[in-house]
Amino acid sequence: MASANLQDARNWRNWIQEDPGTAGHLIVKPPLKPVKPLPWSHMMAKRGDIFSQSPWIGDNLARQIGPQWLCQHVDHLTKMANSTQATISDYKLMLEDMIYVKSVELPFVKGMKDLDFSTYENLQKVTVSAPFPTSSLPAWLKIAKVTFDPRETKPSNYFGTSNASHLIVVIYQYFGMKELDMKEVAKMKKIETLEIIFGGWGDRVPLNDNGSEDHDGEGLSWHQLQPLLKTLRSCSNVQHLILGLRSYCCFHMGSLVELVRKYLPQISTLTINDTDETGYSLHSKDGPEMSTLISNQGPPNPSKPVGIFAFENLQKITFDMKVSISSKGFHARMLAKNAIDKSPSIENMKVFLEHMPKNKIKEVCFENGHGDGLLNENFVMKLRQIFPCMEKLVIKPKIDSWDRKGDRCVILPKYLDLWSMENLVAILETIGSVKQLQISMTSELSAEAKMTREKKMKIFKVGLEIVKDQFPMDAELILIDRKSKCALKKEKLREAVIEENFRN
């Protein structure tokens, strides 16, 4: 699989001729272009306000706009991710040169409806991403990608509902999900990815007809997905599950996953994110408890796992989320209450590790850079214990997902602050021990005030040898000690060095 930017079409010809094997499946990422904000977005918060980074707009404003505001927001994010500067002429030029390409994924552009992909001899699969209009479906059900075989599909049918491959479900308590007509959903036999987005506090306890709280779970917004999931059960291609927590904790995440697992046990890849379009979660200072990933239905039981690790076929997991990795006195309270405590903390991981179920996950990806997230050193140093079958590790934390200047004022730290100088050697040894490693990150290092410059340099020198011996040549890593003005620096395709008087 290859991925590249569509900036200079002339480069494609040489690249494919030099290494045709890499072009079996190609994901095209053309330059993005700015997208106009939603008409009501100015009401969310003033430009530059830290809360403008969250899709949460409050109950009063939600009532003014109507419950469809979240659906509009999701459409907007999809458009932001796929609104490209490329043209149909660029695509034609690229495809003419790509004689070895069998599968291609690319954003929708104007004129694509008139492009006959069957003229490209070896092309067997085309995936197009866009916020596709779905008048036959309710607003909370969205198609983000379509996939078709150009050898078997007429151009007029490229973008039909039957070719949907990425389905987004927006959970919100006012949508009446149980009323969905399943006839259109039943046509979606090509669904590969199911994405579930939580609308704010969509997991709140609902009210019965008599006005009292319904605690049996039947009225919870996520519970209304049962008819949909039951229909999707016949779609054997569903392999990918995305849980979009947005900027909110979801204390019922384990229960939701259990519901999905009941109907779609074949899920092999899982992504969890809690971010909005900036890639930075601000509304929740702490994410859900680490133990919520295992269970929220009482004390975790490794022999009978529930939650995200219960998928028997799970091979890949991607974390793009903030999470509290433990809580003080958690074990005692859990036994006393027979329930998962929801108070956030980042103290230690003892309880989580004690109840971590066995898994067969081979690929682990981290795309969130919060220091109190899963890239926290307490989690990273235990990776081998948590994922004993891990063969591939990807660490590419992001802060601004879209990298657009001027669209939104993003208040973010210049550098991540993830690891300590004291544990640096253990961290690098753990990361470097993985068979396949992809890493691209810059982070400051914390250190005890009494630690001398000499001791820091000794640690850096040991770490340097680990990076030289165990990290791949395409690794990108900068670890900075601000006080000593030194950094361990590994640039792509260059040998790692210790740089004194580091400036960036």
Secondary structure tally, helices? 13
What's the architecture of the domain at 414-504, going by CATH? 2-Layer Sandwich
The tally of beta strands, per DSSP, is: 17
Helix content estimate: 10-25%
Shape: globular
- Give the SSE string: EHEHHHEEEEHEHEHEEHHEHHEEHEHEEE
Structural class by sheet pairing and helices: alpha/beta
CATH class of the domain at 414-504: Alpha Beta
Low-pLDDT windows of residues? 1-10, 12-21, 45-56, 201-208, 277-287, 325-348, 400-413
* CATH topological fold name of the domain at 414-504: GMP Synthetase, Chain A, domain 3
Content of β-strand:
15-25%
- Radius of gyration from CA coordinates: 24 Å
How is the biggest beta sheet arranged? 17 strands, mixed
End-to-end gap:
33 Å
Summed over residues and divided by their number, the pLDDT gives a mean of: 76
Map the helices and strands:
Blueprint: E1 2-4, H1 10-18, E2 25-28, H2 59-65, H3 69-82, H4 88-97, E3 103-107, E4 125-132, E5 141-148, E6 164-171, H5 183-186, E7 193-198, H6 226-232, E8 240-244, H7 253-263, E9 269-273, E10 316-320, H8 330-337, H9 350-355, E11 363-368, H10 377-380, H11 383-386, E12 392-398, E13 416-420, H12 424-432, E14 436-446, H13 453-470, E15 476-481, E16 486-490, E17 497-500
Parallel strand pairs: 1-2, 2-3, 3-4, 6-7, 7-8, 8-9, 9-10, 10-11, 11-12, 12-14, 13-14, 14-15
Antiparallel strand pairs: 4-5, 5-6, 15-16, 16-17
Helix pairs in contact: 12-13
